[in-house]
Design a protein that fits this description.
alpha/beta; Rossmann fold; 4-stranded parallel β-sheet; 8 helices
Amino acid sequence: MPDEIAVKDTSSIIQVRRIVARADQPSVFEKLTSLVTTGKLAFPKEVLKELERWANPETQDFPLEWARSNAPLASVHSVPLETVRAVLAEVPEILDPDKDGVEEADPYVLALAMRLQNEGYQVTILTEERKDRPDKMSMNTACGVLRIPCLPVETFLSRNGIWRRGG
């Protein structure tokens, strides 16, 4: 097992589609698959469920295809319900009040990261959520409260030699 694990949230998977040219996306997702295969990249199964809820059946969706094909390995780490409860006790504002009745991935991403951190891994959450609202805490802020490092996916891709803007 690796010492470092990055935990992707839904926004970071979708962000690849936004920043990487469509022609380059298969290569980027292939390199991300290599990280999943070596145990250096993970996400809870709730991330895949979120991607499926927002999928557009009219177009090829590389992020969703990637998540589906990698979910068996990427979601190998269980997320104990008591850890999700601990996250929500510390940062209840992570839940979006506009999504009442929908199971959100954010608390599970945070709980997975906490679990892995407690097991001795160096964990980084990959998220694009940086803006707090009066009724919703961003993932970036929640990571700060929980003392979990976080990065935007563009920085992660660059630092891992996967993709760099303009080159």
